[in-house]
Design a protein that fits this description.
The complex is a heterodimer. Chain A is an all-alpha fold. In chain A, 71% of the residues lie in helices and 0% in strands. Residues 1-10 and 304-308 of chain B have low confidence and may be disordered. Classes of the chains: A mainly alpha, B mainly alpha. Chain A: Pfam families: BPD_transp_1.
Chain lengths: 283, 308
């Protein structure tokens, strides 16, 4: 590796001043809202009105967290885990199957079908909201967790198929031909060769959709109505509609809602950053 | 004897049961295609069908009114206002988010060891759900107890303190600021990927020739990033035209529709005013706008993939 030679540079190098200033400024811009959120969540309601906003809480009061956790919060959390877990499993299975067909099988409408599915990536999902709501009511699934799984899987499939098809196209054909010679049928080839070799693609797809769906709000809001069947983002919504004036309590809910993803992020930043960019950057 | 000839005849390289040619792709595509048809394609078409009805959601069917809803839409000032707001969001997303994101990407590309830490922290807003962020931002903007106004007052700049979300002049802008705050890290990482693909030798060659970092950036790196910038702009524009979340959570489109977007107007028309037919007209119009703009932009840029 070459080291940059130190040469006298002509002209003004704004990077010297501008760069660190901008870096610190954006650090503050990013962190201050979080700081306010966490600080306020530890204050009592009286504290939050009586002391200035930037004052530290008088003592580390967990009363808000206790109140929230004793409420329905854990039910919302459980529902989110269930809905997202089932959705991701189906997205991976259906997405990988379709990607295998589009990447490897020869059939008449392969190219147009791929184009159509990829076009699904730009569909404004809110257009489907009302028909999906009517369908859900007719099917008797309104206010159940199953109401969310269908739309969640469908809205995630286009981008997932797009990513996985790219992955599967890179798998060498020789592997497939060798397996064919050994008498493997298409299902065995898919399950024993393509799925294992697509591991990184599958994890990218799982992370990308997992985060999007974990934070999904409007379908969950429209298709469910009671805390027993609602997902985590609605914990915040329901809390704010009930206790609009309890700002510390609300900040405790917001903090707790943000915590699972931030915890996951703490363990695997690289993977999560890569996963979240999957829609824009290939793989 | 017979068993010997049988093994001779059986072709070794064949699967035991050969599938008919059409069955294999059908089997692999069916689950995904069924889901997409039921939950994406059918609802899209159904939305156009509903747009021809006058229906309050009660009963099994609305009244067929032909193109009445569409004619009403064309002269509905609120629809045009929301389309204007969507366009404003698109313009501001591009002119605010992309330059800041580019500056941050360049900064992290240069910075040494601490750039990793900065990148990790900068990325945090993207992990917030829009409801959580919306509720948090609403508190920041609160006219009486929100830190923004309290800090402005403490600095004796009361003149700049406003009822951010309650004033028709400031609501849209205040929310756009939060949208930018949340999305800038996304474009930052996008541009960082673009910069990472910039060959080191080129930079060193230019430095040896006496070019300043500033010159290198404007004349070599920026042209190199052109494709990535285009992708970023495209994503920002399409994302803005179908935007919903933070506006819905923070202002619901108000006050007096001043921050109304097509998606929030559609939502309110259906779920607050119970006009399923007209709401579906707005939804379908939104679909047409997004599809037109996206295909136009794709045609102009010719590609969706960044050059990284």
């Amino acid at each position: 590796m070459l080291t940059t030679p130190v040469l006298p540079r002509r002209g003004f190098a704004p990077s010297r001043v501008v760069v660190p200033t901008l870096g610190l400024f954006w650090l503050a811009v990013t962190l201050l809202p979080f700081l306010f959120m966490v600080m306020t969540s530890f204050k009592t309601q009286e504290d939050s009105f009586a002391t200035p906003i930037w004052a530290l809480p008088s003592h580390l009061d967990l009363i808000n967290y206790k109140a929230v956790l004793q409420g329905d919060f854990l039910i919302y959390l459980r529902n989110s885990v269930f809905v997202i877990g089932v959705s991701i499993a189906l997205i991976l299975l259906f997405g990988a199957m379709a990607a295998y067909a589009l990447a490897r099988l020869r059939f008449k409408f392969n190219q147009p079908l791929f184009g159509l599915i990829v076009a699904g990536m730009i569909v404004p999902l809110h257009v489907t909201l009302v028909p999906v709501y009517l369908m859900t009511r007719q099917a008797g699934l309104y206010d159940t967790m199953f109401a969310l799984i269908g739309p969640y899987v469908a809205m995630s499939l286009p981008v997932s198929i797009f990513i996985l098809t790219g992955f599967m196209k890179q798998i060498p054909r020789e592997l497939e031909e060798a397996a064919q010679l050994d008498g493997c049928g298409p299902i065995a080839i898919f399950a024993r060769i393509f799925l294992p070799l697509c591991g990184p693609g599958l994890s990218t797809v799982a992370i990308y959709n997992g985060i999007n769906l974990w934070n999904e709000f409007i379908f969950a809001y429209v298709l469910t109505s009671t805390p027993n069947h609602r997902t985590l983002p609605l914990a915040v919504w329901d809390f704010q509609s009930q206790f609009a004036s309890n700002i510390p309590g609300m900040m405790a809910v917001v903090t707790l809602t943000a915590l699972p993803l931030i915890a996951a992020y703490a363990f695997g930043q690289e993977k999560i950053v890569k996963g979240m960019m999957a829609g824009a950057l290939k793989g | 004897m017979t068993s010997y000839t049988e093994t001779q005849v059986l072709p070794l390289a064949r699967p035991v049961r050969a599938w008919p040619a059409w069955l294999v792709p059908t089997f692999f595509l069916a689950p995904a295609v069924i889901m997409l048809v039921v939950f994406l394609l059918y609802p899209l078409l159904s939305s156009f069908q509903l747009s021809l009805l006058n229906w309050n959601g009660l009963g099994t069917q609305g009244k067929f009114v032909g193109l009445d809803n569409w004619l009403y839409l064309l002269q509905d000032p609120i629809f045009w206002l929301s389309l204007r707001n969507n366009s404003l969001l698109a313009v501001f997303s591009v002119v605010i988010q992309l330059p800041i994101a580019l500056a941050l990407a360049v900064l992290l590309d240069k910075a040494g060891g601490y750039s990793r830490v900065l990148k990790i922290v900068y990325f945090l807003p993207l992990l917030m759900s829009s409801v959580a962020l919306g509720v948090l931002a609403k508190n920041l903007y609160d006219p009486n107890f929100g830190p923004i106004n309290l800090i402005l007052q403490a600095l004796h700049m009361d003149a700049f303190a406003h009822d951010w979300l309650g004033d028709t002049h400031y609501a849209l802008g205040s929310i756009i600021a939060v949208v930018c705050w949340q999305n800038i890290p996304f474009y930052m990482v996008l541009f960082m990927a673009g910069l990472a693909s910039f060959p080191d030798e080129l930079q060193e060659a230019a430095l040896l020739d006496g070019a300043s970092e500033w010159t290198i950036f404007w004349h070599i790196k920026l042209p190199h990033l052109y494709g990535t910038l285009r992708t970023g702009a495209l994503l920002a524009i399409i994302g803005s035209l179908r935007y919903f979340d933070l506006i819905f959570v923070m202002s619901g489109g108000g006050p007096e529709h001043s921050s109304e977007l097509m998606a929030t107007y559609m939502y309110r028309t259906v779920f607050d005013s119970f006009q399923l037919g007209y709401g579906s007209t707005i939804a379908s119009a939104m679909f047409i706008v997004v599809t037109l703009v996206a295909s136009l932009a794709l045609r102009l840029t010719r590609r969706f993939e960044p050059e990284v």
